[in-house]
Amino acid sequence: VVDAAVRLLVPWGALVVIFYFALQGVRAVAGTHTFADIGIKLLGNVSAPEWLSYIVGGGAGAYGIKERKLRRDTVERLTGRIKQLEQMIDLARTSSHLTERGTTRPEDKL
Amino acid sequence: MTQIVASLHLGIALLALWVLLFVCVREYRVDALRQRLFAIRDELFDYAAEGNIDFDNNAYAFSRELLNGMIRFAHRISFSRLVLTEIMEHVAPMPASVAAPLRLFNREMNRLPEHQHAKLCDIHQRMMQVVVRHLITGSPILMFFFIVHRLAAFIHTAAKHAQPHPFDVHLRGMEQLKLQALEAQQLELQAA
Predict the structure, then answer these.
(1) Which chain A residue's Cα is nearest to B49?
(2) Closest-CA residue to A71 (of B60, B31, B190)
(3) Minimal Cα–Cα distance from B153 to chain A, Å?
(4) What's the gap in Å between the CA of A29 and the closest CA on chain B?
(5) Most exposed of A85, B78, B161, B184 (fewest Cβ within 10 Å)?
(6) Could you give the C-alpha distances from B122 to A93, B125, B136, B169, in angstroms and in order?
(7) Closest Cα partner for B126 from B64, B36, B53?
(8) Which pLDDT does position B35 carry in this prediction?
(9) Per residue in B38-61, pLDDT tens?
(10) In angstroms, what separates the C-alpha of B190 from chain A's closest C-alpha?
């Protein structure tokens, strides 16, 4: 339990810090501008290199997600065959108890 | 106004970085560790399938169970867990009975013929190297000490031309991690 708390504390703590500072920024202009103003400025003030970096970053993320899905699909497709073939040689073959897609079972997560 | 837009851009970038570090990289590292452990488990299976050791040999079965446990709980293997395990060991030491499987394994290993003993020791050692690599590369603190250790080892052994495996590092608490993995696997077997 303590280990799980420590593992969760770092990422969620970082997220809280990010939101805190973003909120401080918004508070600084509270009452002087509407959210629509800020939204228009946010999109309108993006330069071409910044757009390019957002597209490259977003594209790389999407590529990574698609590749991961492809790999997990492959794991799912091959796992059953490997298990079956290995059990033909070793009847008492033991398992790592991961899911068919090679991920952690929900009950093992914490 | 320009400042608020700039700070919002920074916020978006920080959020993207957060997702990259704490979702993508974290999941990738666990998958990579599992992949390396699966490769070692496959090698162990192939070794037995070639008739070099019986599938029902206790040392083989133990090695496979240990690898299974490490694969299953790869997501829990972290520096913080290692430290907490070590602290817990000092505060409330595990009863001797908990360490019994490791003693049994060592006894079974010593009974093996030389070639089997050497192979299983090699597999065991590589499994630990893979886990230590995962622990070190996942912690900035351990990474710092590792680089210092590697530099010192390089300077010390450069003259002798004998470079040990970079992740052949003994970390306190590793035996407890192995025991935890084994214990969970045994509970699963009993439940089944």
Answers:
(1) A89
(2) B31
(3) 31
(4) 8
(5) B161
(6) 21, 5, 21, 15
(7) B36
(8) 96
(9) 999 999 999 999 999 999 999 999
(10) 13
- Count of A–B CB contacts within 8 Å? 102
Say what the pLDDT of residue B160 is. Answer: 63
Record: contact A104-B18, CB cut-off 8 A: no
What span, in angstroms and rounded, lies between the C-alpha atoms of B49 and A82? 14
Helix runs in chain A, H state only: 2-28, 35-44, 48-89
Which residues are within 8 A (CB) of B89 and not within 5 positions of it... i.e. 6 or more apart?
Answer: B173, B176
> Cα angle vertex A56, ends A52, A62, to 5°?
140
Give the C-alpha separation, B190 to B192, whole Å. Answer: 5
From chain B, pick out residues whose CB is under 8 angstroms from the CB of A81.
none
Query: How remote is the C-alpha of B96 from its chain's centroid?
Result: 23
Look at residue B146 in the predicted model and tell me its pLDDT: 87
Contacts of A35 by beta carbon, 8 Å cutoff, 6+ apart: none
Say which amino acid occupies B74. Answer: A
The whole-number pLDDT of residue B159 equals 61
Residue ranges of chain B whose pLDDT lies below 50: none
Return all residues near B20 (Cβ < 8 A) that are at least 6 apart.
A61
Shortest CA distance to B79 belongs to which of B152, B168, B174, B167? B174
Within a 10 A sphere around the Cβ of A24, how many other Cβ atoms? 10
What pLDDT shows up at residue B94? 74
pLDDT digits (tens, 9 = 90+) for A45-101: 778 888 898 899 999 999 999 999 999 999 999 999 999 999 999 999 999 999 999
